[in-house]
UniProtKB/TrEMBL annotation:
Domain of life of the native organism: Eukaryota
Protein name per the record: SigF-like NTF2-like domain-containing protein
Matching Pfam families: NTF2_SigF (PF24840)
TM regions (residue ranges): 148-167
Keyword set, alphabetical order: Membrane, Transmembrane, Transmembrane helix
Coiled-coil residue windows: none
Length: 204
């Protein structure tokens, strides 16, 4: 890539949603370094000699499972000093012969780039990481289970709140008080402070 910020959306579509396997393979060979690494919630490729072939195999398996993948790049952030890209995407992945309709899932793609060994003016992907919310991982495979994931996440929230209150009350862990640490810090409730300001008389 000569201009990663502008080109990465096309690259993402070529390696994941290409119209045929030949274009996909050519794109992986062009845009990934030969020793690139890959990390995903369900699989991983350690960077090393020949690792690009393993990444190609994973991307080909995606298309075997889902003949049609739709992916929309929503946002791109590029740090040119660190050769680092963050790409926000929404994709629809429908497993072949699955009776369930494909469900949009959001992911953040994190890419580290490095100069190509063939042409230092071009940048290739050295490390590829995919980050999904738990519900979005389930959306890829069995969309009807998404409400169950949300239920477990809600239970995690309740457990966290109860745990915090219990250990604060019983053991005094991480309790909040005015003047914490003896520094005289005055803690103000924003809502209370806002109401007080509205009631305060104004100079005429």
């Amino acid at each position: 890539m000569e201009n990663p910020e502008k080109e990465v959306a096309d690259v993402v579509n070529l390696v994941t949603a290409a119209v045929n396997p030949e274009i996909q393979k050519l794109s992986v060979l062009r845009y990934y370094a030969p020793d690139a690494g890959f990390s995903h919630p369900l699989c991983r490729v350690v960077p090393g000699p020949g690792s690009r072939k393993l990444i190609l195999g994973i991307l080909q398996w995606y298309r075997v499972m889902s003949p049609v993948i739709k992916i929309d790049v929503r946002n791109v952030t590029y740090n040119a000093d660190k050769y680092e890209l963050f790409v926000e995407c929404v994709q629809v992945f429908h497993i072949r012969y699955s009776p369930f309709r494909g469900h949009p899932s959001r992911l953040i793609v994190h890419l580290y780039l490095k100069p190509s060994i063939d042409d230092p003016r071009l940048l290739q992907i050295a490390e590829h990481e995919d980050f999904y919310h738990p519900a979005d991982v389930v959306a890829l495979v069995v969309p009807p289970l998404i409400p169950i994931v949300y239920l477990f996440l809600w239970l995690g929230t309740i457990t966290s709140i109860i745990g915090a209150r219990f250990f604060q009350t019983v053991f005094g862990f991480w309790t909040v008080s005015n003047g914490e640490g003896g520094h005289g810090v005055k803690l103000i409730d924003p809502e209370t402070d806002c109401r007080a300001q509205k009631k305060a008389p104004t100079d005429s």
